Amino acid sequence: MSAFTYRNGVLHAESVPLPAIAERVGTPFYCYSTAALESAYRAYADAFAGMDASICYALKANSNLAVIRTLARLGAGADVVSVGELKRALAAGVPASRIVFSGVGKTRAEMRTALGLGIYQTNVESLPELEALSEVAASMGVVADTAVRVNPDVDALTHAKISTGRKENKFGVDMELARSVYARAASLPGVRPVSVAVHIGSQLTDLAPFRSAFERVAALVLALREDGHDIRRVDLGGGLGISYRGEVPPSLADYAELVRATTGGLGCHVTLEPGRSLVGNAGILVARTVYRKAGVHRNFLILDAAMNDLIRPSLYDAWHTILPVDEPARDAAEEPMDVVGPVCESGDTFAVQRALPPIGAGDLVAFLSAGAYGAVMSSTYNSRPLAPEVLVNGSEFAVIRKRPTIEELMAAEEVPAWL
Ligand code: PLP
């Protein structure tokens, strides 16, 4: 059940009417539901109960400390791709022993920080990165538990910009090279190759690509064991999709069954790195209509939110359901509107010719399914301060990231003395 529903004609987050939040923090703002975050995590935990598995939340989807903390309290580990995310995970209460460090270009300094903290595993994506990790670890007198992320050359059947498991993508080590990379790993002093990692893309709504990838990982684990490597873990990445526009993603029960069927016989500890499927439907973006502009060819709703706040429609042609916060009459006639922001780019468009009930200037609207890859991808383009984030819990809410002032944005800049 969605955490964002109409009650008495007004869209609520759990028991909080959205206009009450708008009044407190202004618009636009992100709003997350504790109940939705918790139920998404529990659904994962339940589906994988009884399996030797860890759920390491992929912070890239939403790295607000309060969001991470909500999941960490339930037992989530973390998948991080930078020292910034690593520090956030720790600050939010995820123990280092539950943190996986992923990413295609970790610097030596980042490796040093992560190894110094004693993280669970480092996933490398190339031979030079493996060699750098060994060098850094050896210089610190430690041995890094390491996975090589392999590229299984599987089409994830998702948007090209979030597909990561094809041979032409920058991610992972080609399957054909994997055994030689593990052989090199075994010869290096600072790494212990204990795991095979894979992640083929995001927003997958079909299990078939997962099946192909996991089967290839399982076959590789057996081959590596034959080569004498002590592979005890597999990291199967994230990628499970959510419903933005009526997609029906695979159930967690079926996904867990697939994991069991493809890798269960290996006796490996399984790490999962879900991001979007934990937080995507737990958040919305709320904006106010500034103007309704009637044109000869098109009618526009111009909002106070823009592509700098939510870039997914511009970047991926992503669809977000848009709801008026005041519930429209059941028989309200819909009209096609282009929903846009005020930024000086034609790409600053949320929806084209979207059939919407009447929405007037001053009205609030909500973009659903904005909890993942929303606030984290926002910028201050056009000197627009980052939208605040709010977490709702039952009938209370708290600002979990405040809106900076323009003065705060400018404070990081300096005009040189010669000017
Ligand atoms: N793990 C890795 C290595 C990733 O690159 C990503 C996202 O691209 C994820 C996990 C999380 O993916 P998702 O949010 O689709 O679950």
Explain what you see.
By secondary structure, the protein is an alpha/beta fold. It is 29% helix and 25% strand. The chain contains twelve helices and 21 strands. Strands 4, 14, 15, 16, 17, 18, 19, 20 and 21 form a nine-stranded mixed sheet that branches. α8 links the parallel β11 (191-197) and β12. α5 packs across α6. The longest helix is centred in the middle third of the chain and has 19 residues, at 208-226. It is globular. The chain starts with a strand and ends in an 8-residue tail after the last helix. The relative contact order is 0.16. Bound molecules: pyridoxal-5'-phosphate (PLP). Pyridoxal-5'-phosphate binds at residues 58, 60-61, 79, 102, 199, 202, 237-240, 273-277.
Brief synopsis:
Helices cover 29% and strands 25% of the residues. It is an alpha/beta fold and 419 residues long.
Helices and strands, with pairings:
Layout: E1 4-7, E2 10-13, E3 16-17, H1 18-25, E4 29-33, H2 34-47, E5 53-58, H3 65-72, E6 77-80, H4 83-91, E7 99-101, H5 108-117, E8 121-124, H6 127-140, E9 144-151, E10 173-174, H7 175-187, E11 191-197, H8 208-226, E12 233-235, H9 252-263, E13 269-272, H10 276-279, E14 283-294, E15 299-303, H11 312-316, E16 322-324, E17 335-340, E18 349-356, E19 364-367, E20 389-393, E21 396-401, H12 406-411
Parallel strand pairs: 4-20, 5-6, 5-13, 6-7, 7-8, 8-9, 9-10, 9-11, 11-12, 12-13, 15-17
Antiparallel strand pairs: 1-2, 2-3, 4-14, 14-15, 14-19, 16-19, 17-18, 20-21
Helix pairs in contact: 5-6, 8-9
The structure holds pyridoxal-5'-phosphate.
